[in-house]
Amino acid sequence: SYTMLVCSLFYNVMWAVVFGVSVTVNYWFVLTLTCGAILGGFIGTSLSIKGGEVFVKKAFTVSCLTLGVLL
Predict the structure, then answer these.
(1) What's the half-sphere exposure (Cβ side, CA atoms, 13 Å) at 8?
(2) What is the pLDDT of residue 1?
(3) Of residues 48, 36, 35, the one with CA closest to residue 4
(4) Are 27 and 70 a contacting pair, CB within 8 Å?
(5) What is the mean pLDDT of each run of 10 residues along the chain (71 residues)?
(6) For residues 27 and 33, what is the distance between their CA atoms, to the nearest angstrom?
């Protein structure tokens, strides 16, 4: 639930800091990726809270099947 949102926010900020310090990067690219990851984590967490366990199982199944087909 909200723990997932906090963890998602924390991990995304941390990888952006580590990545930004480690190598020469295009900071607009990092900003875009970070905002997208935080927004995606927020939307995913909100949907999982509203949709419940059944929704999460269905979404996970669809995403796994999609990745399996694409890979």
Answers:
(1) 18
(2) 56
(3) 48
(4) no
(5) 72 77 76 82 83 87 91 85
(6) 10
